[in-house]
Amino acid sequence: MTSMHRETKILLISDDNQQRKDLSYILNFMDEAFVVADSAQWRDAVKSLSSSREILCAFVACHSNEECLQLITELEQWDAFLPVISLGELETAHWPANIRHRVLCSLALPPTYHRFLDCLHRA
User: Fold this and answer.
1) Which residue of 23, 44, 102, 110 shows the fewest CB atoms closer than 10 Å?
2) How far is CA 82 from the centre of its chain?
3) In what order do the strands lie in the sheet with 9-14?
């Protein structure tokens, strides 16, 4: 497998501080560049980027399906082509098709290394 480009960033959004730390350790171990934020501050976290294209994909973890729907809708408004990987299982059947299709894969927590890599490569 080929490695990701170092300048490509992953946007990690979670409202759980421990989860952000744990996933940051994984991404650091994998030598991935990333931006981490909670759902209220992700826009501030990406302000320094020259373009939304610097983000390869967004990992999102939410407390509820409604929160995730809102967050993924915001991400789509920011970049209509940004792939999303959900952390945890989501019930997306009632979501609008454009938002539902934005979610490339879902990772159970804690994620297995191979499934984590698989989702990254799909993005």
Assistant:
1) 44
2) 9
3) 33-37, 9-14, 55-61, 84-87, 103-107
